[in-house]
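Review this fold:
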Amino acid sequence: MPDQDDVRAAEAFAADEERPFKLVKFLSWSSLVFILGTSLFLAVFIANQARDTLLEKQKRFALLLAENVNHQIFQRFTVPTLLRFGRIELQNPEQYAQLDKVIGSTTHGLHVLTLRIFDSDEVVSYSTDTSLVGRADLSDPVVQKCLEGATTSFEIKTEVSALWSMFYPDLAAKSVILRTVYTLRAERSIIPGGPSGQIMGVLEFTQDITEDYATVVSFQWLITITQFLSSLLLFLILVVFIRRAARIVAERAQEQRRLERELHQSERLASMGRVVAGIAHEIRNPLGIIKSSAQLLLKKAESGKGPDNGAARILQAMYDEIGRLSQTVNDFLDYARPKQPRMLPFNLAQILDQAMVFLEREFLAKGVVATRDYPAELPALGDKDLIYRAVFNILVNAVQALDGAGTIIVRGVVEDGGVVLSFTDNGPGFAPEALEKVADPFFTTKDHGTGLGLAIVSTILDSHGADLAFSNAEAGGARVTITFPAP
């Protein structure tokens, strides 16, 4: 296992890898907020422009109406009244009725709510609401300016503001009123030789433009919702890309940390392997001398020329333990200093037969039934001695896993030019938590053992470009699968 400094270094490296993406992520979200804000601003701006355009159109229409009223009053009322009566006196019911008739026919169907005319003394001389006639308290600075010569003035009167009107789906009638104040002028001189354009009074009328205003509000909502939905769609697309990128970065960071740990583990194992290889090499020679000496003493004891039977049993135990220790040393050396394979064509079926024959006595002694299920020819490319070592270790592991009577099935088939071997036993199988670590060096579930057997097998097969897989059989027991590439 790597030490804490190694772990911290790997985590710091991963953090450095993620930092640029965090900046990109921040910029993406910032851009999204900016786009959303800009879209909403543009929606409001465009909608306001549409509202202003509508109001401008209403003002032009009101101006045309005022000019037409001015023209009709002059042509159909002022001139005929002066010719008939010599002067204008709206207190005269006949004159008032004539003016009312002219104004009524002119404004009919044009959504005019109220209309009144102020004389030069700012007194209401005519009104569609007759109760207001004669009042002098209805004038305001706008009327005064028109009497002084100003031409036209427009004013919007509404019960709700332009912003809040968007939140009223159904504006009531008369919610938005356009007030127009217009200077009534004589189109030509009333007195022979007199000046034209003489101010005759001030016209004031109001119109209900709520319906048109509601149309603009609907248009505002249409623009705002469209902009919002487009921004929301962009937001969702960005979220998908950001999350996908975040997942990829997280996976890469995790993979980087895993590779870092594996690299440190490999470096440690390589360093330890070199040390162990040196020690094992120094131990093997004197161990061989001890083993041969114990064998010689054991033979003398068995022939009756040496120690008694008790001593012979001790010598036998010494000999067996020395043999086991010698095998352990050889395993360390094989793992620490793997041999380079000689890549030559060979028949895998023959290798399997040799290993099965060699282990036949052990199979019989433990009650193991070994079944061969492979053709006579399994062509492969590699070092047959190393492959024999790998196959032998797998079979020995299977026998040890059975721990008594059982069955081992060895199958082999040719697939896509390569060879697939499988070794299946009916033992307890692999523990789920151990499947990932079975081939790790020094990992073992046995009370005795170095945990290098399958690690050596994995190293040998890796050097041949073969795949090694561990699983549990459907009917129970362990399965080891080797896939050799096409020769």
In short: DSSP finds nine helices and twelve strands in the chain.
